[in-house]
Amino acid sequence: MAAAPAIGAWSNTKPNTLATHPLRYPWVFWFMHREAGAKIENYNNSIKKISTFSTVEEFWGVYNRLTRPMELNNVCDFHLFKQGIRPIWEDNLNGGKWIVRLKKGLASRYWESLVMAMIGDQFDVGNEICGAVISIRHSEDILSLWNLSADEGRVNLRIRDTLKRVLNLPPNCIMEYKAHKSSVADNSSFRNTDLYL
Known about the structure:
Elements: E1 22-33, H1 43-46, E2 48-55, H2 56-63, E3 76-82, E4 96-102, H3 107-119, E5 129-136, E6 141-147, H4 153-167, E7 175-179, H5 180-186, E8 194-196
Antiparallel strand pairs: 1-2, 1-3, 3-5, 4-6, 4-7, 5-6, 7-8
């Protein structure tokens, strides 16, 4: 059996220093939890910053220590957003999000696939991707991918198609989209969405 590869390579110019692999953007992990049935009075105070990273090595240092979504208690969210963008609608009122509803037990696998695709810049839509959220709920888990421009039809469809591919979703999977302006208007993340096949 071959030895596992190291997380990095030794630099040729400076012996005994570990090279790092910068990501295109710095990212921030956030977390939110509320008791079942409780209302959040101030979302900004409820969401907690976990860690920031900007290299592959820093990502794995954080990610390996995080609890996996399927091990979390109900009614909590993990967020991964580009640094400088908070995971709140008001920070990106012109944007929106793609939504995939998951059966219980699948959240960890889909979350990891989406995280890898985002930090690996696989969506190929420039700066359009803001971040993602995995929402752990009682009867289902909900994966959301946020983007900057809700009105950019071609870009949004490209994001949808890439999301289907990186998550390996079945062809008949129903996906939803909701503009953040609509979320603000009805004070809901997941109601009154547009459905897509």
